[in-house]
Write a structure and sequence with these properties.
Layout lengths: L1 H14 L1 H18 L1 H4 L37 H37 L1 H15 L3 H11 L4 H10 L3 H14 L3 H8 L4 H37 L11 H8 L8 H28 L1 H5 L1
Helix pairs in contact: 2-4, 2-12, 4-5, 4-7, 4-8, 4-10, 5-8, 6-7, 8-10, 9-10, 10-11, 10-12, 11-12
């Protein structure tokens, strides 16, 4: 039965144009990130004063040795883009894991127990929603030392509310179903009811929102790194490349353009894939 289920998903993916585009883009980015040392033609950190600000190969002055050109320190743009994909994938996935864990736990507890606990959790959610996520991140990162794991933690802690609201709403509905009431009647513990009967029924919605949240996390990381409060040099990220290239945007546009294109393609791929997952996993979408 599982094989038939997987075949059904594959058929739906093939029929969905946006789904297949998103899948190919995301798979390509992950492939590039995992094989960065093998795919990068040059050391992305190596400074070469004799090769500074070489334009892309199709522009006068460009060379096939540096297909996408070099930056203000003579570093190969293509190599830096390839290595920068690692940071985007790591931050996007791990921050969503942190946010998802916190949000799902709070959502399950608030939805199942209700009452005072539900009120406290929802007021906490409202407090977070009243302030833009990027502003929360700026405040936290100003106090803490900027860095990779700090950034992952901050994005995760400031992004959990959407999971909590979604899971809480679905838990409120599921806890009133007959099989949950039956389990409670025969003495099944609350922990087992939550983990065995409620959580499996909300996981599909969590997967969908997690996929879309990866895209938001990548944009947040790039924005914070661009402002100098995210990933710190010499670590390579697309946001840092954008920041480094802004001073040369009038004369050496490729320094900022290619990282911007990389961010755009990655985010679009994740959104397309997330939309397909929503259509496949969300019962409400299937019923429409």
């Amino acid at each position: 039965m599982k094989n038939n289920k997987y075949r059904t998903y594959i058929k739906k993916l093939i029929k969905s144009k946006t789904g297949i585009v998103g899948f190919v883009l995301v798979l390509s980015i992950c492939f590039i990130a995992m094989l960065a040392p093998l795919l990068a033609p040059y050391d992305p950190y190596k400074i070469n004063a004799a090769q500074m600000l070489i334009p892309p190969v199709w522009i006068d002055g460009g060379t096939s040795n540096h297909i996408l050109g070099t930056d203000n320190l003579g570093r190969d743009i293509l190599s830096r883009l390839i290595y920068g994909s690692r940071i985007s994938i790591i931050v996007g996935i791990l921050s969503v894991v942190v946010a998802g864990f916190i949000g799902v736990v709070f959502g399950l507890i608030a939805g199942y127990y209700g009452g005072f606990i539900d009120t406290v959790v929802m007021r906490l959610v409202d407090s977070f929603l009243s302030v833009p996520t990027i502003l929360f991140c700026l405040v936290f990162l100003t106090v803490l030392n900027p860095g990779l794991f700090t950034l992952i933690f901050v994005i995760g802690v400031t992004s959990w509310v959407m999971y909590a609201r979604l899971v809480r709403g679905e838990t409120l509905s599921i806890r009133e179903r007959e099989y949950v009431k039956a389990a409670r009647t025969i003495g099944v513990s609350n922990l087992k009811i939550i983990t065995r009967h409620i959580f499996p029924n909300v996981i599909s919605s969590v997967i969908v929102i997690s996929t879309l949240s990866v895209a938001a996390s990548i944009i947040t990381e790039s924005s914070l790194s661009f402002l100098g409060l995210g990933i710190q040099p010499p670590t390579i990220s697309w946001g840092i490349m954008l920041s480094e290239g802004r001073e040369y945007i009038a004369t050496s546009w490729w320094l900022s353009t290619f990282p911007g294109i990389a961010i755009t393609l990655t985010v679009l791929g994740i959104i397309f894939l997330g939309e397909w997952l929503r259509d496949v996993l969300d019962p409400r979408s299937r019923g429409m």
